[in-house]
Amino acid sequence: MAYEIIALDMDGTLLDSEKRVLPSSVAAIERAAAAGKTVAICSGRCPAMVTKYRDELPGVRYAICCAGSVIYDMEHERVVAETDLDSAFIAHALDVAEQEGPFLLEVTSGTGIFMQADEMARAALCGVGAYASLYHETATIVEDAHAFARRTDVPQSKLNIHFEDVSARDRCRERLEGKDAVITNAEASSMEFSAPGVDKGTGLVRLAELLGVDEAATIAVGDAENDLAMLRSAGLGVAMGNAIPTAVEAADVQVSDNDHDGVAEAIERYLLA
After folding, report:
1. Which candidate among 145, 164, 168, 189 keeps its CA 20 to 30 Å from the CA of 252?
2. What is the pTM of this model?
3. Which CATH architecture has domain 87-194?
């Protein structure tokens, strides 16, 4: 099978344990682009947090962002497609979360994220300390992120709730499961919410349609729960060596981990074979 598109998750896949892009990945991506292949990022991050790496990845044009809710053209700096959460669900989710325990709220609207300064200071307590500098670089600070998220005039493609306590996250998810959103666990004690029927898998399928590529000619590479859908929907699912067991089960093959050239291996062995 000749594959035409490869979608790379970021955290735990394209980025190593220190949140860096390995030189081997950059070189492999450039070889793929030179061969006429499409290398796309597929991340839970918003466009502003993905484009931070644009200069390091000149071979990447498209980014499937916000766990599949947004497709962003980095070359032309425009949103190609977007699906938003229901405002009533957002309000309900926040009501439930606020009853379960303290958390850091990350609101995605348009191409950026909106956060509250005092909550950002608790990033390490909420299991996302590795993102603290990225938050400071890319987030727009609002006085009250919870009130901002409840505004019905602010379209939101994704909501991230980072709890201090994993048991609070799990209780919240149990109460919200089956409601009007796709819910996935992330990081140590976080939850991601996107619109019903939207995930990284549907995002990859949508990008393939936009580019006129058959779904069977796609590859997805990932490591975590929010990668399961794209690992299953792609023509070839590739799990990283550091992937969680369910991601390994969902994938067709496995490569080395994110600290040992797994992305380069996936590109060379399967996209450029």
Report:
1. 189
2. 0.89
3. 2-Layer Sandwich (3.30)
pLDDT by residue (tens digit) across 84-131? 999 999 999 999 999 999 999 999 999 999 999 999 999 999 999 999
Q: List, in order, residues 6 or more apart from 263 with CB less than 8 Å away.
A: 8, 13, 14, 22, 24, 25, 28, 29, 221, 255
Q: Strands (DSSP E) along 153-243, which ranges?
A: 158-163, 182-186, 190-194, 218-222, 236-239
| Per-domain residue ranges of the chain | 5-82+198-271, 87-194
Question: CA–CA separation, 267 vs 31, rounded Å?
Answer: 9
Backbone angles phi, psi at 32, to 5 degrees: -65, -45
- Sign, CA dihedral 102-108-109-112, equals positive
Distance CA 12, CA 244 (A): 10
